[in-house]
Amino acid sequence: MTHDHSDINNHKSLLQTTVESRRLLWWAFLINLVFLGVEVAGGLISGSLALLADAGHMFTDVAALGLAIIAAYLAGLPPNSKRTFGLLRVEVIGAFINGASLVVIVGFIVWESWQRLSEPVEIHGPVMLTVAVLGLAANLASALILLGRRKENINIQAAFLHMAGDALGSAGAIVAGVVILATGWTPIDTITSLAIAVIILWGSLGLLRRTVNIIINATPEDINYDEVKKALLTIKHFDDLHDLHIWCLSTGFPVLSAHVCLNPTCSDSVHWQQCLRQAQDMLRERFGIVHSTLQLEPTGYEKDKRPL
Q: Residue ranges of the alpha helices (H) in the chain?
């Protein structure tokens, strides 16, 4: 049984990405922390639900970014004899917590909107509009900082989703502020908040699905299990395979293990190495699977039938 040692370089690359991601998260954290106080004050002064909802979301953003920074720091720690992959999956857990917090925020917005429908509150349009414009600038700045890394790291992706949700909240508050200033129709504030809640919920559910799939070791969405199996069986002298598992340790780190049954004509151990290298090269180039562990089983090898 052997494995592809290039996973060591892949692990180092992931650690480097984590360090760079942590720096971006710090910038986004500071921007949101400064503006949080401004938005809370503006929401209280103006009486705007959209602003208060957005401020509540921004508060969780600050906490979420702080959590993401901690997760990125832990994920950057080197592996050791007790944690041979290090703590890379901590970022996935942090992303799951951030995704779950978005669902809680949506529940708060819906509940507050219901309260406002029965007990309308006077809204100060100019203050609401001013703070919303400033909020949009802060949200967009934070989102742009994280934009380039969001597909490389699910921890960054979760933080980006928080920032994008806040940007939508600020944009909605601007629309509501303009309508209130022009017409005085305050229900637009509640309607806008509910629309934002639906958008945030949609994005957060997708994030939760992706993080749960990684946590439970599901086959990565961008890798077709059947195609991988078929590709392995097209390699000469690979007659069959069993116990094929494909999962992700973290974002961008797919892992594969399998037992390969060799053809009876393949009796030269030197040739086994050639077949193994061909399989590992194919997995890397075609499916992006760098860390692969393949156990070669010669003809007559009795499969372990002991219960797991």
A: 7-46, 49-75, 90-118, 125-147, 154-183, 187-215, 225-233, 269-287
